[in-house]
Amino acid sequence: MADRSAPLDVIAASLRRERARTGLSLSEVAKRAGIAKSTLSQLEAGSGNPSVETLWALSLVLDVPFARLVQPVRPQVRVLRADEGPAFRSERSDYVTTLVSSCPPHARRDLFRVAAEPGPPRRADPHALGVVEHVVLCAGRALVGVTDDPVELGPGDYIVYPGDVPHIFQALEPGTRAVLVSEHC
């Protein structure tokens, strides 16, 4: 006979993980799902016998697909080689950004590789309210940040600045390379 405890362990871990992600208390999730707090506590402890209705209610409250609660999390490994990915060129400067990783569900960020050459700066109009950009310079030198007060960066330097105001990236040396994370708040 198959081991029936394994699905309960998966459900328990999934409930704990997803509840932590939402920042909701045990009481609040139980209340919103219309179940007893003790029932949710038992499920998170790996005991109890959840009905499909209970799991559906919890998936709705936690804003996740039903399957995310009942299937084990499998690590996803993805490799993107240096010359792969959709690249976008600037019209006004020698600046290319390549999308490395788009924002997955329930996350709020995009990850880009930047390749830039000396010349006119890449001037960016303000993005949506609350956007924050993080840049790590990998090679070369660049002026990066808010248009009115950019900062000179060298290899290994990191800057974070509001992306919802005008900002620039200007390569100061040939072969300037960076990683940019656009965080959507």
From TrEMBL:
Keywords from the UniProt entry: DNA-binding
UniProt xrefs under Gene3D superfamilies: Jelly Rolls, lambda repressor-like DNA-binding domains
Keyword Coiled coil tagged: no
InterPro entries found in the cross-reference section: Cro/C1-type_HTH, Lambda_DNA-bd_dom_sf, RmlC-like_jellyroll, RmlC_Cupin_sf, TransReg_Diox_bact_type
SUPFAM superfamilies xrefs: lambda repressor-like DNA-binding domains, RmlC-like cupins
Chain coiled-coil ranges: none
Record domain HTH cro/C1-type: where: 15-69
PANTHER family on file: HTH-TYPE TRANSCRIPTIONAL REGULATOR, METHYLPHOSPHONATE SYNTHASE
Protein name per UniProt: Transcriptional regulator with XRE-family HTH domain
Provenance organism: Amycolatopsis viridis
